[in-house]
Amino acid sequence: MPEIDMTRITDNLMSVYNYAFIDAMPYGFYKPNDAMYVGVKLVDKMYHCPKCKGEFTVKYRNDNDGITYFSKSRIAAQKQVYEDLSLDFPANWELMEKPFTYHIVGVCSECAKKDIMESQEEGQHIYNLCHQLHLLDELMAAKAKKYMTDSLQKWLDGITESSYLMQFDLSTRESLRDLICAVILQDTKAVEDALQEYRDAVQPIIYEAKQLLEKQTPAWKANVAHSCSLPDSMSDEEYHEYTVAFPDESSEGQDFYMEKSIEKERVSMFLTQHRLTSLEEVLMDAGFHEEWIDMVVDKGTSLKK
Ligand SMILES: [Zn+2]
């Protein structure tokens, strides 16, 4: 179970989505022992799409002196992937010494558009609905922050005299904070509209997914979207800092679809989570952003010139 923070609805939704579809392993705090893990000089990963034969490579950051620990089961699975791709798997002694590429077979987002995303097969369709829901949850949170920032900007744009701004107490961060919150609360129309749109969009998705889920077996396999720029753990049982490789910052956030086993109970948990329903919740969830203080201070400075 992920730790659930009840204070932020959006964070909570994100961690439950990850629990259901992405990362099901617990975190371990010890250094892997040699009997269970193999050190590998991992430098990059290469994605192969069997449908269009497309390939692309993502470099890893050079952490832990370039050595990443693979669980033995992962090494065995990777050997199989090498074999399937007709590549020569390095000898044991070479793993620590020579640059190693991790190969991943999965459907690229272009090809996924045609069959995976349009699939009417029920297990896949349930995942697709959940993924759509996840994107809507994230979009709502992003819109809330943007529209709140816009409200403040609009108010600042309307100020032409420094005397107008000076009538407010701008002496402390607390007083600036209070002023900014009051300004944002006066102009919440865009956030309210976005919330209404979000609620109208998520309700039918949740309804349909729940209906399908009822008839579903406790577990099934489906193709799940993975972002290529997220860290990869090379351990099947448990992950810790020695088994995780971080893609280079230049890696693009492209999605790849890979088969994963899905558990009904986890999907149900994701679908039944509390989602943003009221304006108060949206504003609380978006929180306060320090850059808003800078916007007011910058305005004050520009008027004094
Ligand atoms: Zn493809």
Structure classification:
alpha+beta
Shape: globular
N→C terminal distance: 55 Å
- What percentage of residues falls in helices of 4 or more residues? 40-55%
H/E topology pattern:
HEEEHHEEHHHHHEEEEHHH
Provide the gyration radius in Å.
24 Å
List the uncertain runs: 1-6
User: How many beta-strand elements?
Assistant: 9
Main sheet overview: 4 strands, mixed
User: How many distinct helices?
Assistant: 11
Question: What hetero molecules are in the model?
Answer: zinc ion
* Strand percent estimate: 15-25%
Mean pLDDT: 89
Structure description:
The longest helix has 36 residues, at 122-157. The radius of gyration is 24 Å and the shape is globular. The model is unreliable at 1-6 (pLDDT under 50). The protein has a domain at 29-119 and 224-263. The protein contains 11 helices and 9 strands. Strands 1, 2, 3 and 4 form a 4-stranded mixed β-sheet that branches. Strands 5-9-6 form a 3-stranded antiparallel β-sheet. A two-stranded antiparallel ribbon has the order 7-8. Helix content is 50%, strand content 17%. It has 305 residues and is α+β, with helices and mostly antiparallel strands. The chain has helices at 9-21, 72-84, 92-97, 109-114, 122-157, 162-166, 173-186, 189-214, 264-272, 279-286, 290-304; strands at residues 37-48, 55-59, 67-71, 100-105, 107-108, 219-227, 232-233, 244-245, 255-263. The structure holds zinc ion. The site of zinc ion has 7 residues, from helix 4.
Could you give a quick summary of the protein structure above?
This protein is of the alpha+beta class and 305 residues long.
